[in-house]
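Researcher: I'd like a candidate sequence for this fold, 208 residues long. If you have to choose between options at a position, lean toward the conservative one.
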C-alpha cells in the first residue's frame, strides 16, 4: 500500500442538519469513538471545488485578487469554483472557471494535486489542475457580479509566487498548494509525471 491516506468510516449513531445555506450546510453527527464513547462532531458539508494553476509560455501563473469576507482580506488566488452539479466532470468545471474568471482557454491539462482543504471541520475536496498552452478564450466575456466585480487579474512568475508563499505574504489554500506542488514537480520528475486530466477522484466521483 505504501505511505498513503486510506478510506475509513466510523459508526454514526445519529445525524442532523441544523443549518442549510445557499451553497453549503452544517451537519452534526454522533460518532462512536474507538473506546466506545459517542461524541458530537459538527462540520460543514461542501459540494467540492476545482482550481486551475494556468501556466503561460513565459513561466507566469494566471492569478486574480478577490475580496474574501470571512478573513477580511483581498487574497491573490488561482481561478477556482464550486462543483455545482452532483457528478459533474471536474475537468469541465475547471475549464469553465478558467474561462469565466480569466477569459483564458488551455490546450494541455493535467491533475496537479487533490486536497481536503480543512478536514477537521469541513468535507470540501478540491482538485487542482495544471493548465498549459494558454490562449484567449472565444466568445463573450462572462458577466461578473458581487465580489468578482472587483476582481483584479495578473500574470506572475511562478518563483515570485513561491517566494511570497514562503514569506507568509500569500495565503489562499489553492494558490499555496498549487504553486508549491508545481515547483516540486519541476524540480523532480517533471510535468509528464503528473496524472492525466481525467484521472479518477474518489473524493468526488464523476462521469467521464
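Model: Candidate sequence:
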Amino acid at each position: 500500500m505504501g505511505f498513503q491516506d486510506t478510506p475509513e468510516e466510523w459508526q454514526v449513531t445519529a445525524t442532523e442538519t441544523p443549518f442549510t445555506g445557499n451553497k453549503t450546510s452544517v451537519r452534526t453527527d454522533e460518532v462512536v469513538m474507538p473506546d466506545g464513547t459517542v461524541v458530537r462532531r459538527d462540520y460543514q458539508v461542501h459540494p467540492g471545488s476545482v482550481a486551475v494553476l494556468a501556466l503561460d509560455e513565459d513561466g507566469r501563473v494566471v492569478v486574480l485578487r478577490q475580496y474574501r469576507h470571512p478573513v477580511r482580506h483581498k487574497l491573490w488566488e488561482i481561478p477556482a469554483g464550486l462543483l455545482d452539479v452532483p457528478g459533474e466532470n471536474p475537468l469541465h468545471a475547471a475549464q469553465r472557471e478558467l474561462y469565466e474568471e480569466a477569459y483564458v482557454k488551455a490546450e494541455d491539462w493535467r491533475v496537479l494535486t487533490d486536497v481536503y482543504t480543512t478536514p477537521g471541520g469541513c468535507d470540501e475536496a478540491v482538485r487542482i489542475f495544471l493548465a498549459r498552452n494558454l490562449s484567449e478564450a472565444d466568445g463573450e466575456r462572462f458577466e461578473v457580479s458581487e465580489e468578482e466585480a472587483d476582481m483584479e487579474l495578473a500574470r506572475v512568475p511562478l518563483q515570485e509566487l513561491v517566494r511570497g508563499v514562503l514569506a507568509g505574504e500569500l495565503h489562499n489554500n489553492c494558490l499555496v498548494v498549487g504553486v508549491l506542488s508545481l515547483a516540486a514537480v519541476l524540480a523532480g520528475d517533471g510535468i509528464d509525471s503528473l496524472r492525466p486530466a481525467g484521472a479518477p477522484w474518489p473524493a468526488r466521483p464523476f462521469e467521464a
